[in-house]
Amino acid sequence: MKKIVSFTLVLASLMLAAFMLSACRGGERELTVMTHDSFAASEAVIQAFETQYDVKVKFLSAGDTGAALNKAILSKDTPLADVFYGVDNTFLSRALDEGIFQAYDSPLLAKIPAGFQLDAQNRALPVDYGDVCLNYDKVYFTEKGILTPQSLEDLLKPEYKGLLVVENPATSSPGLAFLLATIGHFGADGYLDFWKGLRANEVRVVDGWETAYNTEFSAFGGTRPIVVSYSSSPPFEVIYSDPPVSEPSTGVVTADGTCFRQIEFVGILKGTKHRDLAEKWVDFMLSKQFQEDMPLQMYVFPVNGEAQLSDQFVKFLAEPANPAVVAPGEIAENREKWVQAWMETVLR
Fold first, then answer.
1. Which CATH code is given to the segment(s) 130-261+315-346?
2. Contact at 8 Å (CB) between 262 and 174?
3. DSSP three-state, residue 183
4. Do domains 2-129+262-310 and 130-261+315-346 have the same CATH topology?
5. Between residues 303 and 16, which one has the greater pLDDT?
6. Of 38, 89, 206, 322, whose CB count within 10 A is highest?
7. What pLDDT, in 10s, does the model give residues 250-284?
8. Where are the domains of the chain?
């Protein structure tokens, strides 16, 4: 009897010790990744990372890119996460100026073209890119017998009155990208005249892409048949259609100067207590495995040159040959001024 009691006590002690060790490890092995609201990745891919490094990844959705960046900046002394993904080239200079990221020279950068690497100190590392363009509802224009817009100038015509929804550039990265497209196309001295015309033509402004595309866009039950979205949106109309369809119901305006190329970045936040795990996560986002999963999850293109796009994705793409260009230095110098002038013009 004494031996049984003794054995039971030893076994209980071992189980308690194992539980305490597991709990301790669990507390140490959690990585928090702050993202914008449009972040998505397949469960299998996330689980592969968690299994490989014995870690639980917690995702903190923090709004559209502008809102998420504001949260990261306001909390930089006591960061809400270990890693922040989703700041793009339209907001990049602000993130770097605020000093929210730690530098990290990922070995995976060797697989990424230099044109995507906009921070020489590698505080923000490129993950993906996409072209922000006007999307339109094919069914609407066919039923109404109206030609689809072919240029930015077309949006000022009477037949497009009340048809366009855009995102606020102060809170949305696609919204800011589209504002930059208008600046690249019309020039810093002419873009506000264009926006005055859009205001007179009853443009609708919403805070972010999710609302614009999934709520306001007529292809998904809204009332606006023209929306600022991505050139990669149409493939998803086919890939995720229920019931299945053979052609997308939406199209993209890709005329010269109507789109803007957006590059998204990931960075390790200063103050993280899990620097080693944060580095592994950054490497993972740049890896072929994550990069090939990403296009069918987030409407974006991989930057890793080894990643391959699926045939379905490529088939229905409409890539602009000549997107509008605004130099990163010019964006950094004038972004706040341009956005403020836009707000006074369009939201007054």
1. 3.40.190.10
2. yes
3. helix
4. yes
5. 303
6. 89
7. 999 999 999 999 999 999 999 999 999 999 999 99
8. 2-129+262-310, 130-261+315-346
The CATH code that applies to domain 2-129+262-310 is 3.40.190.10
pTM: 0.76
pLDDT tens-digit map of 91-148:
898 899 999 999 999 999 999 999 899 999 999 999 999 999 999 999 999 999 999 9
Q: How far apart are CA 25 and CA 225, in angstroms?
A: 52
Category of 159 on φ-ψ map: left (φ > 0), alpha (ψ -120 to 50) or beta:
alpha
The pLDDT value recorded for residue 26 is 44
- The CA distances from residue 275 to 32, 83, 194, 301, 307, in Å, are 11, 9, 47, 27, 26
Q: Are 37 and 85 in contact (CB under 8 A)?
A: no
Name the one residue in this structure whose structure tokens are 């993972």.
284
**CA quadruple 223, 185, 69, 297: dihedral sign:** positive
